Amino acid sequence: MTKVVIVDGEGLLRARVVSNTGAEHRRLANRVMEEALQQAGLPFDQVSYVVATGYGRINVPFADRQITELTCHAKGVASLFPAVRTALDIGGQDAKGLKIKNGVLEDFVMNDKCAAGTGRFIEVLAGTLGLKVDELAAVAAKSTQKLRITTTCTVFAQIEIVSRLSEGVPLEDVVAGVYDAIARRTVNMLKQLGVEPDVVFTGGVARNAGMVKAVRDNLCYDVFVPEDPLITGAMGAALLGKELVLKARAKGQPILRKERRLEEATFFSS
Amino acid sequence: MTGNIRVAGEQKQGLARAGQIYHDRDIRMRQLKAEGRKVLGYLDIYPVLEMLTALDLVPFGILGDIKEPISRADACLPTIVCPFLRSALDLGLKGRYDFLDGLVAAHTCEVGEKWAHIWRIYIDLPYIHYIDTPHTTHQSAREHLAVLLSDFQGTLESFTGAKLTPERLRRAIRMHNEQRALVRGLYDLRKPDPPLIAGTEVVQVLVALISLPVEEGNELLRQVIDEVKQRHDGPKKKPARLLLWGSVVDSTDLIAMIEDLEANVVMDDTFVGSRAYFSDVKLTDDPLEGLAEHYLVDIRNPRTFRETALDEANRKDYWADLESRHGYLKDYAREWNVNGVILQTLRYCDIQGYEVPGLKDYLEHIGLPCTYLEWNYSQAALSPLRTRVQAFLEVIG
Q: How far away is chain A from the Cα of B363, in angstroms, using its nearest Cα?
């Protein structure tokens, strides 16, 4: 997903756009930005600073600066939950654990090596079960004995659940097992950092009630979920951009901007 | 013999020459072969190169190739083992090292041992010797290694038909010690801020060193050191001065990714980096004893187990243990003015991987920020690592 957030000088949300990235992601950033500008009712030259983050951060030719999604997530989460010490972000491509202190990223851990432990794991296994991702939580709620999925690999897990269904394991227990498998993996990853409350759960996967329950059960802590968990990284990027501008203004320093072009990225743009 | 490479009348020197050899590693080996010299390949830092040099054999460090997809080795080694070793065997099977007259391997790790035996099965060479280097530093282990080196001497003498006299061996030890001192001199050039030489350039020089006979390597080092001291277009000053620790780093790719960000890699504790060069071989009455001491005790490497340090009451003491195992890294950090450490291990590299939890504890204890990367010895793996390194740099400011 490609997301754009625009905040004003007070840090208030002026625009929020979320769009499917797709294979043409190098071309998408400017289109989503145009939509966000329309939503905010702003011309592009009224935007003081643009921070690009995430895997596509180098493909945003109109960005003034690239900051990693880890720092941006930490900022975004802390803006919503000032007491946060630990954050778990599960997206479609990776899972991140963040240690946050006084609103600033202190340490992190990432799973970006395989689909197991990411939203992709849920999507693939939902497909195997013939269900939509949105339907999983209601099915899992009926489970009385969740299935313990033993394989880590997403492809092998598909084979495992098909085999267990054929043995007569109820569908709801299989679905609850899928949630539990991903929660166990990501919570164990999070424990490498040392979990401290408050714990916040973000990313697209945090919109899924079944997944939130599974994370809570595995973590043995309550977890807070933002109202809009998909945009915490983009929100953090916008807030960091705002801070950079305000800090420079307070010091009377020039705001260091790149020569920006609101156009498609090309393989020759930096 | 000057050892300088002449290509179409052009004589390259210093960094340019190191870069040329880095990109075309067998160039000098094939020339030496044509002159009648015998070239023995070796793996990692435990084969005792002094004994090859003493018999006028040319040692050549076998490496992998991060850019070459592994294909043929998958028929001989499981895919869930060290990707560097898989890559090195793959290159051997594909004929990249077809100029070798022999192979010397030593027990660095379990997979390394199997690697050597599998190489012997699939790639027939006139000479192959395996040194079963012990894994502890006990006196009995040192004595055992000296005996193993005596066996090694026997097979080398049979292969060459020459006698390895103590005097020849001492002369070779002096040449290799000179190389170690020169490498330390090269690393001294990384101490200023900004460093006078980039981490990527150091890798090129060190890969070139293991692709040349020792005397030519020493000449190259002298040229590089002189050149770097005199030039004015070295690396730029950056906020982060990093130490890179861990598994083999045999190409510039990983360090180039790091140095493309706001960081200079100013020190390392790796192979092909500092590990082989930061202590000298003592010249003992029986040279094999000094060599055994050096390769088993002096070289700091997770593959060698060191006894747990005990406290005054003779109990295990975790922090004293970490200090005895990793204290030299604190010295590196101080001397090279390091403000962050990147711990990196190749996927399935158990030897280095087991060391990481304790090492992280130690670095945290001494107040040195670190981050841990486990990666897959492929260029494709570098893109996600870039995010982690950049985030680490953002954390340490």
A: 14
> The complex's ipTM?
0.85
What is the predicted pLDDT for the residue at B8?
Answer: 47
Domain B27-172: state its class.
Answer: alpha beta
The model's pLDDT over B38-72, given as tens digits with 9 standing for 90+, comes to: 999 999 999 999 999 999 999 999 999 999 999 99
Closest Cα of chain B to A40: distance in Å?
30
Among residues B218, B201, B190, B196, the alpha carbon closest in space to that of B49 is found at B218
The C-alpha atoms of residue B296 and residue B142 are separated, in whole angstroms, by: 7
Same domain assignment for residues A100 and A201: yes
Cβ pair A112:B387 closer than 8 A: yes
Backbone Cα Rg of chain B: 21
Mean of the per-residue pLDDT values for chain A?
Answer: 90
Mutate to test the interface with B, among A113, A114, A153, A243 (most CBs of B within 10 A): A113
Q: State which residue of chain A sits closest to B386, comparing Cα positions.
A: A68
Question: What is the mean predicted confidence (pLDDT) over B279-292?
Answer: 97
Q: Please name the fold of domain B189-396.
A: Rossmann fold (3.40.50)
Please answer whether residues A108 and A99 qualify as being in contact, where contact means their C-beta atoms are separated by less than 8 angstroms. yes
From A68, A94, A113, residue closest to B391, measured CB to CB:
A68
Tell me: the pLDDT tens digits for B99-146? 999 999 999 999 999 999 999 999 989 999 999 999 999 999 999 999
Per the structure, the count of domains in chain A is 2
CB of A67 less than 8 A from some CB of B: yes
CA trace torsion B178, B198, B250, B177 (10° rounding) = 10
